[in-house]
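Anyone? Bumping this.
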Amino acid sequence: MHLAALHSPSQIQLNQDGHLKHFLTIEGLSKETLTKILDTANSFFNDQNQLITTPLLEGRTVMNLFFENSTRTRTTFEAAAKRLSANVLNIDIARSSTSKGETLRDTLWNLEAMAADIFVVRHSSSGAAHFIAQTVCPNVAIINAGDGRHAHPTQAMLDMLTIRRETKKNFEDISIAIIGDIKHSRVARSDVAALQTLGCKDIRVVAPNTLLPYGFEEYGEGVRLFNDMEAGIKDCDVIITLRIQNERIDSPALASQAEFYKMYGLNKERLAMAKLDCIVMHPGPMNRGVEIDSSIADGPQNVILRQVTNGIAVRMAVLALAMQGQLQEKGLIEAIAV
Amino acid sequence: MHLAALHSPSQIQLNQDGHLKHFLTIEGLSKETLTKILDTANSFFNDQNQLITTPLLEGRTVMNLFFENSTRTRTTFEAAAKRLSANVLNIDIARSSTSKGETLRDTLWNLEAMAADIFVVRHSSSGAAHFIAQTVCPNVAIINAGDGRHAHPTQAMLDMLTIRRETKKNFEDISIAIIGDIKHSRVARSDVAALQTLGCKDIRVVAPNTLLPYGFEEYGEGVRLFNDMEAGIKDCDVIITLRIQNERIDSPALASQAEFYKMYGLNKERLAMAKLDCIVMHPGPMNRGVEIDSSIADGPQNVILRQVTNGIAVRMAVLALAMQGQLQEKGLIEAIAV
Amino acid sequence: MHLAALHSPSQIQLNQDGHLKHFLTIEGLSKETLTKILDTANSFFNDQNQLITTPLLEGRTVMNLFFENSTRTRTTFEAAAKRLSANVLNIDIARSSTSKGETLRDTLWNLEAMAADIFVVRHSSSGAAHFIAQTVCPNVAIINAGDGRHAHPTQAMLDMLTIRRETKKNFEDISIAIIGDIKHSRVARSDVAALQTLGCKDIRVVAPNTLLPYGFEEYGEGVRLFNDMEAGIKDCDVIITLRIQNERIDSPALASQAEFYKMYGLNKERLAMAKLDCIVMHPGPMNRGVEIDSSIADGPQNVILRQVTNGIAVRMAVLALAMQGQLQEKGLIEAIAV
């Protein structure tokens, strides 16, 4: 892959009318597009706040291509696609593609020729989904389910949906703290991009310097760095605690779980620094007692499990919207009407 | 798990109106409840005695959580759920729950938050399904698909359905022999409990002392122990032969397959001691030539494969009933109407 | 298995009215039956040449029994069955059947008793599907998804559909070359049988002697052998290049990939010997640069990916037709009406 030769994702994930036809990354999408995703996701809840099932993707075939194993994310996409009445095929892509000496390109073309409408792609390399969308299968709707450390855009959108539904405030008016292992998180970068696009003016990244990525200063407008937990949290409307990955613990970057908890673990005393109605989010899976205390994880301000439910709604939304964007580009439908 | 602190399953598996909302164990369920399950299962056969497909669980999500592998039982639940038009997700629960250091409780809450309506749980520990129903996910309908040596309640109910459909006699009027490895069987205890509840007055447990569990004398009313095969079978209406588990053979409890067959194997001579219209059942998989002779396994009195078909109907019934019991408890439907 | 005692497949794969009730092999099927399959497959494309979804198998249960792993073929059958609205269960048959000492026969009977309507069978032994259809589960529609080196009949039918749709010529009027590893290919024998039945009069088998099977001269009418690539291709309407299996390379039969490519690789110079509108087919997965040059694999005459799409349509057709043939035999429907 010569990633240098790729067009920017923002160019290729939209059709000629400016609607999503792939969903690869938050970067480059407009506020209108993100809002359309959130509105569509919202429409999948009924009056009792429960997820509906709809025939939007009836007769469509969604293939899950998980080059990297992630049982949980795959399950959420499978649940979302089935709620849209799609046929779902979990492809054992690692085994399919390489065991018989076929090129990956040929494997993907074969899967497309099995009448696939949507590929949900998880890959450990940054840009894999982008590469497939641009150069291999542009006529299949490609949904990025996480690539390398780069992007996890459906996680970002479920975080945005949760903030909107749970705070009932405008993105312009809220203060958000993202705490922890920014460096190794697929989530942090996508969250910051989404928040900026949606107009958030006070985004605080709270971490020790060893857990900040190089070039962090380029995150841009509205983002401030805090090494001090209390200052970072102060008067926030939303706190997003990130998972400390086990394999990072006891590395030079992070001396011990106990030390991290002492410096950055979210507990009652610290949460009290935030606004009274501050919500607490976490992308899961949680390390209780490391980045978050159980009293908070199970406490009244946590919205962690609602994030999971919102994740189904958001995945339904991007599946449905990208499918419609493809059909519109091919002239098979005139307008997006989710 | 502090199992001592759990309420009895009979308390937690019924909703406020006395209808099933989980299906954990036969013990404590009333004759009316068991009969409702059998009637509902019966309603899933059409006039040609073939299983129907119905939209009863359309839009509902069933997750199979098999902590212990059992391809066959999982397949029967998957087939049953799909006949009810549910979305079915097979969760690789062993991999999901532990690999990232998350607690099992958090894993289950996450799955529930993916808008699961029903968990089908198979676990090697007695009481696992009960524990989940009481303390982790009381708002998800929990179906016990076998736990430890304790309970295998859907197997018991498919046995009851088979007895009712094949003998066309009342449970009060029949004599039943259960033969073989009572000690290690999930089936025997559940079968005895169901038979007692349904009014059966002559239940004979036939086994060498080494294959009887401790405390067997507590099985209670209507149950008699036989070491002698011929006496145990005499004039029976129903014979249930149990599987000898391979790993037990050649243990001190069971000197050899040949010896067991000689003492307790069901063959023509022995079957002739039972009533002429006695039916022969086996939970599968069979060891032909050990607990049952092939002439019987394939003979006119065997109903072994009809048990399998009845197993789909019974699983459809408990899935549908527990779902309705949950909805009723939440005030979303008024009455159970399968 | 005493294969000698089996009836011929042509006898057992048809019902009393001469309609398919299993699909085991091309041999013995009439031109009318093959044409019916092709017509039915064609009917599953809409006006935009896209595969439709239909309720033909709604409420039916299709079980995939892959004794031998083949992710790709399994995926195509799963996609086909879901487009027919069937319930699909992928059975881990290797694990189910043997781990508990049960006989294969008992395992299959159990699966049938779970209300299976169709088994899709892939097995490394020639005749396995035939054996199951004749002696184990005659009332389940058995579809052969490839057995040993013997038959791969759905691949043959998708090749026939591709020839019909892409050349728009009659089978009587075309010349076809099948090139490469005839000896180890499941495809070649089935393709030749289908072409003969459909009336093709000029079938050329092009290979070195080391890659021809024993008894090749018995292929019969219309088939000629060529060791010389150019002579074999000359004036052809259709070229089918076969996969060289990696494990054969560097065996005595095939000194090296480079040598094979030099003698039999399809490149521009050689393709120019064929008719101008000659189409190029390959069953996949391809070894680019061994049996086929990339300029041909991606060139304007290749129809390789359309074969894959046609494969879904053909599998839909045999699933639907065999199901109807079973229902007709049981008196449940009067006429085949796909």
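Late reply, but here is one note on the structure posted above: The mean pLDDT of chain A is 91.
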